[in-house]
Amino acid sequence: MIPQNPRELNYSKVKTYRECPYLYKLKYTEGRKEGLTPATSLGVSIHRTLEDYHSHRGDPSEIMRYYNANFLCAGFRSAAEQMEYYLKGRRMLEVYEQREYGRKSTVDATEREFMFDYEGWVIRGKIDRIDKLEDGGWEVIDYKTDAQLEESYDITSSLQLGIYSIGARRAWNLKKGKATVYFVALDRKISADFDSFNEKEILDIFTAAGEAIKAKKFDPDTKHCPRCLMNNRCPYSVVKQQEAA
Ligand code: SF4
């Protein structure tokens, strides 16, 4: 068992609980690790690269140097696969570099943490990047490195960007601004003003998950099994059962 503040919530915990309560138990009460896949490994490398580059206020031409220093050689099944993903990352960052030459905003912070109290809960989060905009507003940015984006994607229904908007307003008192998902692999940004998110609905989702966790309701939800990174180790995995049948 790993120690947890039972009154503390963040997006990752709530997301995991909503995917499968038993997965939450494995990760957050038993401390089991999901392990890296090629895609998650590349995601870590890109996030670390951009944090390093922006926190050093580097020149855009130096991004690849930061990438080479931060590329994670874990989670790959072969050297060829590692090279394939390394080159994918390079292609993303070449486009990112070109964007950087024309950036009008100022990067104010990277990997900044927020925390606020809500109805007896402590809600925390960490945001990839916060920019000050030319019009005096703010932009909180979450990087995504997956290369797929559904046409129906609606940022205002994103629990993650919603809680980031709420955190930016409540913890840092940022009045005017927008939340952005930056699909780095697609060179595409999707944004919504802070006040386009339904604050009450989002906080209700957080507290409902918190109450269920506190009550130790950890029944498996097998709908998530096909995408679950624990599905080869979990006794309730329907994927594993199907493969064995
Ligand atoms: S394999 Fe299925 S039941 Fe097990 S933790 Fe993952 S999603 Fe839950």
Q: Could you provide a short overview of the structure?
A:
It is built from eight helices and six strands. The chain is α/β, with parallel strands linked by helices and 245 residues long. Helix 1 crosses helix 2 and helix 3 (38-55) runs parallel beside helix 5.
Chain-averaged pLDDT = 94
Shape: globular
Beta content? 15-25%
Radius of gyration over C-alpha positions, nearest whole angstrom: 19 Å
From the N-terminal CA to the C-terminal CA, the straight-line distance is 33 Å
Q: How much helix is in the residues?
A: 40-55%
Order of helices and strands: EHHHHHEEEHEEHH
Number of helices: 8
What is the count of β-strands?
6
List low-pLDDT spans: none
Topology overview:
Elements: E1 8-10, H1 11-19, H2 21-29, H3 38-55, H4 63-70, H5 79-101, E2 106-118, E3 121-132, E4 138-144, H6 159-172, E5 177-183, E6 188-193, H7 199-214, H8 238-244
Parallel strand pairs: 1-3, 4-5
Antiparallel strand pairs: 2-3, 3-4, 5-6
Helix pairs in contact: 1-2, 1-7, 3-4, 3-5
Structure description:
The protein folds into two domains: 8-101 and 216-244, no CATH class; 106-204, Lambda Exonuclease, Chain A, CATH 3.90.320. Helix content is 42%, strand content 20%. The protein contains eight helices and six strands, in the order βαααααβββαββαα. Strands 1, 2, 3, 4, 5 and 6 form a six-stranded mixed beta sheet that branches. Bound molecules: iron/sulfur cluster (SF4).
